[in-house]
Design goal:
By secondary structure, this protein is of the alpha+beta class. The protein has a single domain, classed as Aminopeptidase (3-Layer(aba) Sandwich), CATH 3.40.630. Helices cover about 20% and strands about 35% of the residues. It contains five helices and 14 strands. Strand 8 and strand 9 form a beta hairpin. It is globular, with a radius of gyration of 16 Å.
Length: about 220
């Protein structure tokens, strides 16, 4: 993937309130590098980027999402400060083999070389089968919002729909922490592997001027 007309800056420290303000205008970060862009050239052609957010207070899991949670009731979910170690890197390396485009090199590409140091508090929502880590997602914490950085899982456990499950667990953590907004990254206006995010409602998208309801997103989750 090649961003088009990207903006970026470097910062090693942002307050929770500053993180909220950055997410509000479409900014994201990997380690100390903050960036935003409206378009990207992928192997499938030009794609139009839509930053996303969910109103945590209004979110109710749909019937299919509740099925995903029931399917994973045998798992243990643990929340702690983000770290990088050999176990997480091995799982990440297995997960990235699923992709044909925009393939990252390592977990450091997303968390930076020292996740505890920059630029804000980042939590890991780790998922365990017995004592084995099979999924992890990473979430930044602001004053009134949280932002999903990245999630990955064991490819052999794909039948569990862990991409959806990790997002549901992030929303649970956000609600328990009394956060109003969850920013799950972005999707494209065109079809892509990120389309599972569009099934979370009510979802809003940023059109680079204002936030508005995502087209075709469910207004409520029956």
């Amino acid at each position: 993937m090649q961003p088009v007309h990207d903006e970026h800056f470097v910062s090693w420290n942002q307050s929770p309130e500053q993180m909220d303000a950055l997410w509000l205008t479409g900014w994201r970060h990997f380690g100390p590098i903050f960036y935003r862009y409206r378009e990207a050239v992928t192997t499938d052609g030009l794609r139009h980027v839509m930053p996303l957010r969910i109103d945590v207070e209004r979110f109710i899991a749909s019937k299919s999402q509740r099925r995903v949670l029931r399917k994973n009731e045998d798992l243990v979910v643990k929340v702690k400060r983000a770290v990088i170690d050999d176990e997480r890197q091995r799982l990440f390396d297995a997960h990235k083999m699923r992709f044909k485009d925009n393939i990252p090199n390592s977990l450091e590409d997303f968390l930076g070389p020292a996740p505890h140091a920059v630029p804000c508090i980042t939590l890991e929502i780790g998922t365990y089968l017995a004592d084995r880590l099979i999924a992890a997602s990473y979430m930044d914490v602001g004053a009134s919002g949280v932002s999903g950085l990245y999630a990955f899982f064991e490819p052999n456990e794909a039948h569990r729909s862990l991409g959806t499950a990790t997002m549901l667990w992030e929303l649970t953590v956000a609600r328990r922490a009394s956060k109003r907004w969850h920013y799950p990254g972005y999707c494209y206006r065109e079809p892509s592997i990120y389309d599972y995010k569009k099934h979370f409602g009510p979802m809003e998208c940023y059109d680079w001027e204002q936030w508005k309801p995502l087209p075709d997103s469910p207004t409520e989750n029956p």
